[in-house]
Structure formats: structure tokens, C-alpha cells
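ugh ok so i messed up the first submission bc i forgot one of the chains. this is the corrected input, ALL of the components this time, i swear. 501 residues overall. if the numbers dont match what u have on ur side tell me asap before i send this to the collaborators (the ones from the other lab, u know who)
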Amino acid sequence: MKKYGASVILVVILLAAWEIGARIVNYPFILPTPTGILTKLWDLRMDLLFKHLPATLSIVVIGLLISVVLGVLLAVWMNWSPLIERAFYPLIIASQMIPTIAIAPVFVLWFGYSIWSKVIVTVLITFFPITVSTFDGLRSTNKELKELMLTMGATKKDIFFKLNIPSALPHFYSGLKVAVTFSIIGAAIGEWLGAQAGLGYFSRRMMTQFDAAGVFAPIVILSALGILFFIIVVGFEKRSLKWRKTE
Amino acid sequence: MNKSVLSFQNVSFTYKNGDQAILKSLNLDVKEGEFVSIVGASGSGKSTLFRLITGLEQQSEGDIMINGQSYEKRLGKVGYMPQQDLLLPWRTILDNAALPLELHNVSKASAHRQVSQLLEEFGLKGYENRFPSDLSGGMKQRVSFLRTVLSGSNVLLLDEPFSALDAITRLSMQEWLLEQWQKRKHTILFITHDVNEALFLSDRIFIFSDKPVSHLEEIQVPLSRPRTQKDLNQQRVLDVKDYLIEQLRSKVNT
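and heres the new structure output, hopefully the right one now
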């Protein structure tokens, strides 16, 4: 508790300032108060939690799964062959130079309002941190450890499973932590541009109705979702990297 | 007792992208159960010798025989203990020591049993489920040595294993190593910078001369076993020590 005390106090101060400011301005359809947002959240809870949250959640989960599988396979492949690395690495970097928000409408054009247009946006921005960090992790394998294992008669397969993978694991988790936070953003952007359900979609619909509190309410849930995912990943990380001293 | 376990026959070696030969038709012979130290200035090719024996490098010419046999691929035929402990940080002490057994497809249960039987002797009892980061330098080296012993080979190559330890720990590790060696009847090749260490441990000392190495000067240590550190103060040992230091110094100067 001591660790988070300062930031909790800061958040309370900011929220209080917001509440007071918004009340003074007194245009609730443009600048809602935090309490107004909470009230809205409560009013819309059934719709938000049982209709729009599942839509967004499935985009995030499917997108992340694809990214992890794709990213890890690509990283392993690049680590295995320098030719593949030279061929793919520049493309992977280039893919991140494309403004996601600009290319997302193309996916809507191709895949319509189905879940896949949103999944692709999510994959596009989450596979990058996973691929790059896993690849760096695989490459960070200690050469002396590899030679030592060779002197024990280790095969290529032994080296990969007993040395490369454990060496890459901490890096993989770093990438995954970045990816889960990005995945929420990706899903929300995708939904903004074309969807029939989802928290991003709902937020946009409320904007057209000049309901500022309604815009914020799903954003609160999106943020909470991001934090929750992050905590889950940290939990997995701690479990599988027990050997690492945290302090 | 006089069976040859390691012999070089006219071995030459040059690194692939190196212009200077490291070894040039070198002959050497190590007998079963011997403790041989190799001393020489840094960069004189001592580690290269180990890389050749383990099979990490292939000789350009000549033959390297291990236990009287010459192999196409030598990897996995001798036990090698590196200068740094090189334990896998994500493995417990038990799993680290069991690694060579695992690589030889020994079942996990049987590997763990074999390690557990040795933990006490290696002063690691109670640490089997700890990680390397919990251990002191001396303990890590004992795990590393245990792992080398479990490679199952009768020839062990130890590359400056105690150089990173403090002086007191180093002395007790040397005594401990001798005890283990006498009990297990391994043949040990031991690289060191430390002349005292070489004298205390070895039957014979090889001096690495200038590159390319074509001949190893060999010194018989004038001490019987068992020995104590005090024996190093005998006059004939001191004479040998002076000679060794002089040899090494002249190698550095040239």
C-alpha cells in the first residue's frame, strides 16, 4: 500500500479537480463530471458488460493469440536463418510505420463489420513488440553456455529447448506486456471505424449523441480491461520466472 | 595406471580466420589418473587446447586420441568445466547438476537420484531446490564441478575454475578438489595462472611456450601425496617455483 500511496493521492486530487472544474463549467454534455460518468456507467451496466464488453474482449483475445503464435514463430524462424532475418526484419519494422488509423478502413472494406477487420488491426499493432522482443531474447543466448552444452554432447534440439527458449522467456514477457496494452487500443480503434457492437463502437455512438458521460463510460471499462490484462501477464511472468530476483 | 587417456599426435591448429598457427605438430600424452596443470601467459593458446580436446574446434592436422580412440566428433567425450560457473540461472541446483545426465537421455527420476547421492559430498545438501543466484561463488563452482563429474567422462578439463574466488575460498577449494580427485580417480587437466595452485595440485606441469606451440616444457612436481599447503615451502619446491615464474616472465617479455 505504501508503494502506491503517492499515486492514489494524486489520482484523488486530479479527480476532485476535475469534478469541481466540470461543475463550474457546467456543460455536462461536453465535460462530464467523474460522478456523472460513474452514474452513466451504472445506468448502462447491462448493455456495456453483457453486450459490448464481450464483443471487445473477443477481439482482444483472438488478436493477442494470433499475435503470440505469429510473433513467436516468426522470431524463431528469423533466429534460425539469417536469410529469413534479413528478408523479414525490415518488413516488420516497415509495418509499424503504417499509420494504423489510416489503414484500418481498408480492413473494414475487405472484411466488413465482421470481427476480423478489428482482429487484424489488433494483430497489426501487437505482433510487433512480441516478435521483436522474442527475437532479441533468442539472440541474447549466452554463447559460452551454448558451447558448454555442446561439450556435454547436446543436440541442436537440446540447445533450443533447454537454452534458447528459457533465455528468451523474460524478453518475451516484456513484449507481451507491451502487446496487451496495445491490444486494447487496437480493438478500440477497429471498433471506432466500423462495428456493430463493442466498447469502442459504443463510445463513438454516444459522441454522435452529444453524451459525453456516455463516451467516457466505456473508456473506463477499456482502461480497466487493459490494467487487468497487464496484471494477468505479470502474474504469469512471476510464476514462470521464479528464479529471477525481483529486488 | 600407465594407460594413456589423452594423447596428441602431431597436432596442428590454426583458427579459421586467423593467420597465425596456434599449435604446430604438438605431441602430448596424459596417463590415466594423472593431475596435469597447464600454465602460460594469457593468449598463449591454453584455452585453445581445451577447445580442441572437447571438440569445439577441429585440428587442422594430426590426431587427438581420447582413451586410445580417435573420434570424428569429440563433443561429449570429456567433461569440461569453464572459468565462469556458467550455471543456468533458471534451473535449480538439482536440475543444473543433472543437465549432462539429461542430455544423455537419463530419465529425470534417475538423474535426480544420482545428483542427490552426491550433494552431501559436494557440500550442497539442502541447496538442491535453490537457484544459482542464492549461492556463493565457491558453492557455484562446486555445482559446476559436480556437473562436470556427472558428464560421466574419466577425463576432466578444468579451465581456471578458481580464478574468480577470493584467496581463502580458493585454498579450501583446492584442497577439496584434491580430495575429490583422489577418491574418484579421474584424470584432470587444469589450466591456471597461479603457480602455487599448479604446484599444490599437480603431478606434472606443462608450460605453454611461444606461438605456434610445437613443444610443451614439462615439469615434474617434486612432492608426494597427500600434500598440504605447507609443503609448498620446501626448498626444492621453491626452486621449481622460481624456475616456473622465470619461464612465464620471459614469455611475457618477448
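quick check: Residues 88-152 of chain B form one domain. that seems consistent at least. The interface with chain A takes residues 54-56, 75-78, 80, 82, 84, 86, 88-91, 99-100, 102-104, 131, 133, 151 of chain B (CB under 8 Å).
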